[in-house]
Amino acid sequence: MKKSYKIEVDCANCANKMEEAAKKTAGVKDAVVNFMALKMNVEFEDGADAKAVMKEVLKNCKKVEDDCEIYL
Amino acid sequence: MNKKQRKMLIRILIAAVLLVTIRILYAFLGEGDDAAVKEPVWFLLYMIPYLTVGFDILKKALKGIKNRQVFDENFLMAVATVGVIALALIKRNGDYIDGIAVMLFYQVGELFQSYAVGKSRRSISALMDIRPDYANLERDGETEKVDPDEVEVGSIIVVKPGEKIPIDGVIIEGRTTLNTSALTGESVPREAEVDDEVISGCINMTGVIRVRTTKDFGESTVSKILELVENSSSRKSRSENFISRFARYYTPIVCFSALALALLPPVVLLILSKAPQWGMWVYRALTFLVISCPCALVISIPLTFFAGIGGASRAGVLVKGSNYLEQLSKTEIVAMDKTGTMTKGVFEVNGIHHSTMDDRELLEIAAHAECFSTHPIALSIQRAFVTGQLWRKDSETGEASLVDESSEFRGEIKKDRVSGVEEIGGNGVVATVDGRSVAAGNARLMERLGIGYIPCHHAGTIVHVAIDGAYAGHILISDVIKPTSVQAIRELHKAGISKTVVLTGDAKSAAEAVAKELGVDEVRSELLPADKVTAVEELLKAKGAKDVLAFVGDGINDAPVLSRADIGIAMGALGSDAAIEAADVVLMDDDPLKIAKAVRIARKCMRIVKENIVFALGVKVLCLVLGAFGIANMLMAIFADVGVMVLAVLNAIRALAVDNV
């Protein structure tokens, strides 16, 4: 399952860090952050609960980049 | 400017004013006998502008350390500025300005970057502002503005002049002119009337039309295109991946070099029993840290690709990802399908030869003889007679041009003039037209009837016509080369494409004739659809490892080839889902000139990317060297950093301009 989320982040490097953090989150198969379009495309593992996983993703992203937001 | 940026600007201004005021006060009051006593007061005063402009950076740096995310730019800036201020405290020279100014300029740079990115993001989105906001849904005789998402297939919508067509459909009432430039980059408007298909995203210019929708909004052209463009920069190019990998290693490396620069030379000096000059080396190390910020690179490369893809879509070239833009720029070999790509894929009467009567008269007789037939060839002859359009191929340039398209030649088929029609399967037709016996068909028909005929040396389908048993001439019907095809091949060669190849299912002689007209380097004929994959594989094998092979097709039947080539370019994709799916690059209209344009846009974008990488890295390395030898001080370092970033961003935005590429 793939979903796209709107994000808010200030710099391109921070976006890269968010991408890394999202990729490492359990339940996420792949994640791509598009800094220019301010979008995060997440591909979930089969059977993963998107909402719960995205909460974790947000938490992990906040950890690496304090000043970011994912609109769930 | 958004709220965040305005707040930042105010903070920068306040800090700058405070800094200057304190410095002036210091000049008048700072000296004197009690200077040592007053020192802490000055320190505290200086800390006001410093914290005003930099508190968030310090906070982020601390949080980063807590979350084990050291080595980001906040960390670098915090360490560098705190370090310089600490040095000043230790040396008791009251020279805090360096540290504060570095923080100040760093924030100015960040502000500019955020502003520039926001601005280009907006201008690119504005280019792709094809998303319709509403649809005028007709319900019980009244129209109602609804969200396009809510309109069901088969509904009737009304589109007024000036509005965007929200959903793909068919016109059931009205005629109008459509502006397709947002989709195709083509500025010539398109006429549309009842029964014509219309595509969402076009702007209705002149008349009110009623449209019966044939697709959901989500399946409509406009949604497909938006989805494609918005996701395009998610597929990252090698340059982008290189930069993000680079940033990951580069910052730690510079940090450790800075540490080495702070420790090694003094230790060496100590061993040589000279003065270690700790202060100077630490200052140089801190300068190193300031220079090491990778912002210019990290921001400008994705920005260039984003602008390049945005500019390309404005020109009617949709690129599905930065990686494809990068590949496209390296294209060396272009293989292309013939029918529908370089030719119109529509069979037209291209000439009437050896006619014993007026050409028009011969056409009239043939059209009548064939008037009950639905064979494509028969239809072409009928169409030529009814519309009065005759195409003629120029033997020099190979371009087909319309000759005599005046209304006086428009004919009308009267079926009561024809009787006794006999179709001879695979050969042609024999009929009585105006009381005369007419035979129209291929060479076999003539042989069968025992009529001597003159063979045609042109490629195409020949219809011989005999009247009352006497040969009356033949009509040449062939696929027409698009008016811009020849120029397109010329431009490809001019753009440095080393080899152009045409793949076609046509017979060898016809294929070679077309290839010669087009001016392509190689032609492979008599290929079945599956053979085209094999042909492309052969070409792939024969090319150099670094060369990229692009295949251009019209998306019909050639999806496997499109995906097999390094770069698949689908042409005339308006309305063809299969092509949009299979290809890497989609040309919105069917003008072959766009192929060369796409390559040139890609090359320009990659040139800018390279410029930025070389420029930013070059200046960084230069500054690092100058800093290590103490030639560049910290202020110069931050100026270089911010300046490079500004220039790189401005250069990146150039990729958006594609009109004259």
Keywords:
heterodimer; A: 72 residues; alpha+beta; Alpha-Beta Plaits; four-stranded antiparallel beta sheet; 2 helices; 39% helix; B: 661 residues; Calcium-transporting ATPase, cytoplasmic transduction domain A; Calcium-transporting ATPase, cytoplasmic domain N; seven-stranded mixed beta sheet; six-stranded antiparallel beta sheet; 51% helix; elongated
Q: What is the architecture of one domain in chain B at the second tier of CATH?
A: 3-Layer(aba) Sandwich
**Assembly form of the protein:** heterodimer
Main sheet strand line-up of chain A = 2-3-1-4
Computed structural class of chain B:
alpha+beta
CATH superfamily of one domain in chain B: Calcium-transporting ATPase, cytoplasmic domain N
Uncertain runs of chain B with pLDDT below 50, 5 residues or more?
A: 394-400
The CATH architecture designation of chain A is 2-Layer Sandwich
Arithmetic mean pLDDT of chain A: 85
**Strand composition percent of chain B:** 15-25%
CATH topology of chain A: Alpha-Beta Plaits
What is the mean predicted local confidence, pLDDT of chain B?
Answer: 83
Structural class of chain A: alpha+beta
Task: Please count the beta strands of chain B (DSSP E, at least 2 residues each).
Answer: 24
Radius of gyration of chain A: 11 Å
Shape descriptor of chain A reads: globular
Shape of chain B: elongated
Rounded to an integer, what's the Rg of chain B over CA atoms? 36 Å
Report, as a whole number of angstroms, the end-to-end distance of chain A. Answer: 16 Å
Biggest β-sheet description of chain A: 4 strands, antiparallel
Largest sheet of chain B: 7 strands, mixed
